[in-house]
Amino acid sequence: MNNIARLLAFVAALAIVISPLRAPSLELKSITRAADDYRSPNTHLQEMFRAALLDTNKLAVYTPDGTAYVKTGDIPAEWLRDASAQSRPYLYFAKKDPDVRALLRAIIARLAKYLQIDPYANAFTLDYRVWEQKFELDSLAYPMTFAWSYWKTTGDTSIFTPDFQKALDSVLETMEREQDHPLNSHYTEPELSNDGKGRPVGYTGMIWTGFRPSDDACYYNFLIPSEMFAVVALGDMAEIERDVYHNVIKANQATALRDEVQRGIQTYGLVYVPKYGYIYAYEVDGLGHAILTDDANVPSLLSAPYIGYTSADDRYYQNTRRFLLSQDNPSFYEGKIARGIGSYHTPDHWIWPLALVMQGLTASNQPEKEDVLAQLLASDPGDHLLHESFDPNDPKRFTRQDFGWPNALFSEFIMTQFDGVSEIPMGNTSDLEFRSQ
Questions:
Q1: Kind plus residue range of the DSSP H or E element containing 100
Q2: Domain annotation for the chain: domains and CATH numbers
Q3: What would the pLDDT profile of 38-61 be if each residue is shown by its tens digit?
Q4: How many CA atoms within 13 Å lie on the side-chain side of 389?
Q5: Which phi and psi (to 5°) does residue 206 adopt?
Q6: Fewest CB within 10 angstroms: 131, 143, 157, 415, which?
Q7: 129: Cβ–Cβ under 8 A, 6 or more apart, which residues?
Q8: How far apart are CA 32 and CA 35, in angstroms?
Q9: Confidence of residue 434 (pLDDT cuts 50, 70, 90)
């Protein structure tokens, strides 16, 4: 091939990759109508809700292979976690709008392909290249719970193709392998200690993970919020295998793993703190060490009821919540404008809107929800969007100009906590046994 031919081939390939990203925003009539029709006596809330609800429209595009790609925002890649969370508010419109259903089916189809290409990767580019290979357990769980929620919301089983079943197999095999990471896994990553292998761990029945949902390396590699989410996802996977694919063997395999992880959480994940009683640790190693904190990224300890792991009135969750929303939690920060949980991923003492929204979603009383909403509105730097993190003394100082996830979650918060829309579950864990003290 001569140089001109090579150049033409390169340009053609580049056009395939770039052109969908330059496509106009999707026109989903029910979403646009819901944004246009939303009214509030608080005009600031009205503007922020409209912007938040339409944000995923701007970031999602159909691709030549018939799937749909959801960019995280100002980073040219798709995270399995973010894409699932960004798309979730559209489930509220999927039952009645075939165009929304088509988009969500295409998003799920693409996530299924990612899980087969590399189940250890957390983010991919438009052309299916691995953007980052940071093994995050929640990246396996999110597409499973999102597909389950889509099924339960719409009754549509067409998403459960042979290709999706291959993704289920990939997730289950990876989770089982990482139950005994030192013995069975060959995964390493330069950001982890011990030559990329991570710190020593004991066998707990839980699933080893290298990185937190913040994309930061774990200190201890049994990350309790992600273990909780894996329990929910494995229950969803078992139901899909049993009721859709009619594969009882795989359903039982997923259920058995779920129960082992649950026993691990209840055995190793609860720590006694005199001031609060038994609370869930953030990370443990199965060797007696634990970190007591939380991170704004979801799954988090604060989000345990939201992700479907436990009820909001569970005493261990309530104990944990009181600790998390106090000055005893090293990741809880307070300023003149807001107070809430931040992340070690961003500047010290900066708060994440994600955590504020999650506090509101899991609050048990209306005054706390109203208080959270007031702080979220006050965090607006002027563009009517929520960002990654902000200075609680000066919201005009923030990170990530364009970050889709908190805006999607905010629209869900307003619909379910203020507009009377029923919440969509991520799974059913009513049959789980919880430790009694």
A1: helix 98-117
A2: 43-417 (1.50.10.10)
A3: 999 999 999 999 999 999 999 999
A4: 21
A5: -80, 175
A6: 157
A7: none
A8: 5
A9: confident
